[in-house]
Fold each of these.
Amino acid sequence: MPRVVYVRPDGTKQEVTAADGTSVMQAAAANLVPGIVAECGGELSCATCHVYVDEQWLAALPARSADEEDMLDATSEEPTDASRLSCQIKLDGTLDGLVVHIPQSQQ
């Protein structure tokens, strides 16, 4: 099962495991990771699951969809090239150890 490391703004890390096909948002919600609100439940309509993907992992992810790009404009913090909605990142073995950073405003 792939592991995800969530890094809070204060540097605290929380590592969780999840089954293949689980989204980074679902893994956070199932493990009570603070800062991943996921109000819409992963329907790509709220932007409350915004994360910054650690630079070393950016190339491993598929490109953002046009819908994800649009929703990133509604995040609580300015999006960057590393910004993703965690509901749109599906885990599999290639993402084992994925590191994502939770924005300060989502504490």
Amino acid sequence: MTVQPLLDHAMTTLKNNGFKHTQKREALISYLVKRNRYVSAREVHEHMTQLFPGLSYDTVYRNLHDFSEIDLLEETDLNGEMKFRFHCSQGQHHHHHHFICTVCGKTKELMICPMDFFEEQLPNCTIEGHRFEILGRCEDCQ
């Protein structure tokens, strides 16, 4: 999928969740869509201050967190730092997990889910959610 349909869908999601459409929010989402990997709030802030000098780190971080709350972004903790990426299945509904490069943040989709095994190991339990990530170095960061 190209950037514009993802961006349009994201801006509609923001509006549907009570967020105003601003140039800053559109630029932030566009940056994450184009990166297609996990990035730190610091990296996003550095990019955003090139476009909007004086934009505070707190504003960037708050938006990243808010967008994660409405499932527009995914977040993970890599090397003790929170990282964010545009939700790769935005607008779609397919279940998958990720391999995440601990150096560059690049992700690869894993199309199998280990929960099939764990559900068998937890009879009479109600699983309310799960998260599965494999961390390592991608072929470019070896």
